[in-house]
Design brief:
By secondary structure, this protein is mainly α. α1 packs antiparallel against α2 and α1 runs antiparallel to α4. The N terminus is likely disordered.
Length: 163
């Protein structure tokens, strides 16, 4: 019997796991797991993770999809990312300023709904087909880079209408 090294998770799995983790963190906030202070911390963690996720896709994945059969869907995802980015700005402003907790919860619910709308398109259109478009080497490289990527300070989601 030959030992085979365990292969790294596929790119689609890495992308989807990132989304699911962010969704769970927002759910944790909305259910106030751990009390109000812990819940607010979880919401900030979700905002930070979603910003990093958007950065990783915009800088590492979507450029590789341009000019492929996923070019149109990649553009649509960039439009969604910009909308999510704007919502993240509002959520962070609510976390930074003393405000009515219900205002924060409403912002979190809006973020949750926007993220759900986005991922219900992204999973079947991008995640389920990215491995058909990218070479195994590209997939491996993007998956590895996504796991390690750090968003530079001051980076903002680009406006796809300016492409």
């Amino acid at each position: 019997m030959t030992d085979h090294p365990t292969s790294a998770p596929g790119l689609a799995l890495v992308l989807d796991a990132g989304c699911r983790s962010i969704e769970q963190t927002i759910d944790d906030y909305l259910s106030a797991r751990g009390g109000p202070a812990a819940a607010a911390q979880r919401l900030q963690e979700a905002v930070t993770a979603l910003r990093r996720h958007i950065f990783a896709q915009e800088e590492l994945l979507l450029p590789l999809l341009r000019g492929t059969t996923l070019d149109g869907p990649a553009h649509a995802m960039s439009v969604d990312h910009l909308q999510l980015w704007d919502t993240l700005d509002r959520v962070e402003a609510g976390l930074a300023a003393p405000t009515d907790p219900e205002v924060r919860r409403t912002a979190a619910r809006i973020l949750q709904a926007e993220l759900d709308r986005h991922t219900t398109k992204e999973r079947p259109i991008i995640f389920d087909h990215v491995e058909d478009v990218l070479s195994p080497e590209q997939q491996r490289e993007v998956a590895e880079r996504i796991e390690a990527v750090e968003m530079p300070p001051g980076w903002v989601c680009p406006d796809p209408s300016r492409d």
